[in-house]
Amino acid sequence: MKENILVFDTTLRDGEQSPGASLNVQEKVEIARQLEKLGVDIIEAGFPASSPLQLEAVQRISDESGTVIAALSRAVENDIKASWTALKGAKKPRIHTFISTSDIHIAGKFAGDRYGRTLEEKRRTILKMAVDAVAFAKTFTSDIEFSAEDAGRTDPGYLAEITEAVISAGATTVNIPDTTGYTWPSEFGRKIADLISRVPNSGNAIISVHCHNDLGLAVANSLSALENGARQVECSINGIGERAGNASLEEIVMALKVRSDLHNFQTGIVTEEIYRTSRMVSGFTGIIVQPNKAIVGENAFSHESGIHQDGMLKNRQTYEVMTPESVGVPKTSIVLGRHSGKHGLKARLEALGYTLADAELESVYRRFMEIADKKKEVYDDDLRVLMGDELGKPSTAFVLDYLHINSGTASIPTATVRIRHREKVFEESATGDGPIDACFRAIERALGIESMVSTYSVRSATAGREALGEALVRISDGSVSFNGRGISTDIIEASARAYIQALGLRLEHFENNTPETIDHGV
Ligand code: KIV
Ligand code: ZN
Predict the structure, then answer these.
(1) Where is the region Regulatory domain (predicted)?
(2) Which of 1, 227, 309, 445 is the most exposed place for a label (fewest CB within 10 A)?
């Protein structure tokens, strides 16, 4: 009998904390649906206390999912209440609460005297806060996870003490994060074995691990922990997450599958859904998967040298330890074009993992036709980027009706824009240092606003000369920021779309008057 390893996916929480990766509610809902198809055991859907949009996303995912849905909360009552508000519609809710346990974190994050004057006093306070948080969470639901933040650098005796205490208070999973990605595989494995042997009630909870990739060791550390008694592994699609990211789900799962000769573990992951999930996450977050990334990179199954190609033709196993089909890499790519109908588009999007309501299909089809007119052949990656663009739209969106640019080596760049918004039309022209500057100035004039762009970038989102360009614009207004994303085969148009999307989100924010202080948007 194989032993089951629980796969806890944190793409929508830690993954979303990747710089520049914020996802909107609809995108999170789509990713959660795909994670369910992938067969993850737990979806960590967000951190509800951190913003109303986070809370809404967890709520929407909870309401429709049959998978265990976890919500993160600091070890304080208000966070736990916010998590419960978001989770209460879930069939299988899990409250995940955490507090720092390493001396370095305690000294830095709990410096105030109210936590105690000496390190020892502070440790006592933290232990009490952890136990109180678990006990409070337990009044809402039975499935409680506790995480000892920076456990990788925590004193083993104290880690064992706090683990025993939270299990006694009702924690059903205790997570041991290597928050800073500092540990070494054999060292981390020993830590897990040592913890399990020190904690008398460890058998009453699942021991989980959550490894960061600062030294590129997150997957190795996670596997070593499994060999030493951990039975839940926390990871993210494409390994996205804080700084260098989290352990990558696809690498852990495929390592366990391909090297099943070395252990007795299995996961419930439908590995054929891996590639689709990876592409969806990349499309929505805008974080490109590096070409040589294991399992899901563009080159993971390509063979360049003649010797390799020859070997592959004779026997694929010569240079491949798994098949591309086993992780769902499509054999052939179906190309759509301007003659493709709405049904064809819907079917292709469904094959790529997207579920669209009729109204959404209408607007996606309109954009698809605009792109197909310019690009002739529309590939799967174009569709993924298009979906990322469409799902990011605010409901109060400004619509770019018209854009005309005049630019060249011997002329002053000039832009004219026409923008529609709730039956009104705004039209203006402006000159600028370059065509994008002229375009942004024209938008600002048309909408009567001062320049608000704090960050701007443009990249090629798909391959080839006819690639879709993707522009990202961040605007800041006091302590609030709004991100807009635009795509087009024309990067100036993509930039204009990104800017007006960010402005639409800003408008929506102030109309709803939501008291947020963190980034939101695409
Ligand atoms: O890295 C970490 O310690 C975390 C915890 C909140 C689980 O993300
Ligand atoms: Zn983390």
Answers:
(1) 399-522
(2) 1
Same-domain check for residues 433 and 315: no
Pair 437, 492 in one domain: yes
Tell me whether residue 478 is in a domain. Answer: yes
| Domains contained in the chain, number | 4
| pLDDT for position 394 | 61
Tens of pLDDT, residues 374-426: 877 898 888 988 888 777 666 667 899 999 999 999 899 999 999 999 889 99
Same domain, 349 and 475: no
Q: Which residues line ligand 1 (CB under 6 A)?
A: 14, 98, 147, 149, 175, 177, 179, 210, 212
Distance 346 CA to ligand 2 centre (A): 36
From the CA of 149, how far away is ligand 1's center (Å)? 6
Report yes or no on 519 lying in a domain: no
- Residues 106, 162: one domain? yes
Ligand 1 atom showing the smallest separation from residue 98 Cα: 6
With b for 16 or more beta-carbon neighbours within 10 A and e for fewer, the 238-275 pattern comes to: bbbbbeebbbbbbbbbbbbbeeeeeeebebebebebbb
Annotated ligand binding at 246? The verdict is yes
Same domain, 45 and 129: yes
Q: Residue 24: give the domain boundaries.
A: 3-285
Place of tokens 């709405």: 342
Spatial CA neighbour of 233 closest among 41, 92, 68, 62: 41
| 14 labelled ligand-binding | yes
Q: Tell me which residue has its CA closest to atom 7 in ligand 1.
A: 147
> Residue 464: left if φ>0, alpha if ψ -120 to 50, beta else—which one?
left
Amino acid at 49: A
Distance 252 CA to ligand 2 centre (A): 16
How far is the centre of ligand 1, averaged over its atoms, from the C-alpha of 109 (Å)? 14
pTM comes to 0.84
